[in-house]
Design goal:
This protein has helices spanning 3-22, 40-48, 59-68, 86-92, 102-115, 141-149, 173-187, 202-207, 217-220, and strands spanning 30-34, 53-56, 74-77, 95-99, 119-125, 154-161, 193-195, 212-215. The protein is an alpha/beta fold and 228 residues long.
Length: 228
């Protein structure tokens, strides 16, 4: 058994345990394997091990992988998307999780219109005081959702967040709980995605309502590879 296969099984076990504590079916939680900076050989191993959804942070690297493996997996763009790269993301990815402004949403919608397609998106919500992070402030989320919903070529499917980096995952529980409450208010009983939780805090996130976790280190390891 390869290390990646073993790692994926370990992550799925963690997801299942947290899901049971939350009173939900483990299969209702989508695992996004974050493959940024990892070579295509590792992506191939992960696909062979059952990974079906991948997340990429860098547009050019992501395009190479999404194009190569488009029939074998679903591809999510999860990094900060520059407005001038909106067309590329709209063309090559199945979901953009990191819509962080109304202007970016409009650029993506316009690009999809020219491509003759619609794309699923998540609104990125900004918690904490880190100025380097992107996203809508919680107080602006409902109004922003109304604006994004009105765009013709976008399907707003839910919310995503990257909480502050902490040593104890419990410190982020309040942010995950706030996301759950925000999602319930914005989507008013509709089924929606809450993409929150990564390698270090996925259990807490699932316990607080996450149904999509983005995991890189626990699957692919910490070693960084040069981008292709």
């Amino acid at each position: 058994m390869s290390d990646i296969k073993r790692n994926i099984e370990s992550v799925r076990t963690r997801i299942a345990s947290a899901a049971r504590r939350a009173g939900i079916a483990p299969e209702s939680v989508t695992l996004v394997a974050v493959s940024k900076t990892k070579p295509v050989e590792m992506v191939e191993e992960a696909i062979a091990a059952g990974a079906a959804v991948f997340g990429e942070n860098y547009i050019q690297e992501g395009i190479l992988k999404a194009d190569r493996f488009q029939d074998e997996a679903s591809w999510h763009f999860i990094g900060h998307l520059q407005k001038n790269k909106a067309r590329l993301a709209a063309e090559y990815f199945d979901m953009i999780e990191s819509i962080d402004s109304g202007e970016l949403a409009r650029k993506v919608s316009d690009a999809c219109g020219r491509l003759g397609r619609k794309i699923d998106v998540l609104m990125q919500i900004h918690f904490g005081d880190e100025e380097s992070k992107h996203g809508f402030m919680p107080r602006d989320a409902e109004r922003a959702a109304d604006i994004i919903r009105a765009l013709p070529n976008i399907n707003l499917k839910g919310l995503m967040t990257i909480p502050p980096l902490v040593s104890d995952p419990e410190e982020n529980r309040r942010y995950f709980a706030s996301m759950r409450e925000m999602g319930s208010k914005i989507f008013a009983g509709e089924g929606h995605i809450l993409s929150m939780g990564m390698t270090g805090d996925l259990e807490v996130a699932i316990e607080e309502g996450s149904n999509m976790v983005r995991v890189g280190t626990a699957i692919f390891g910490r070693r960084e590879y040069a981008k292709p």
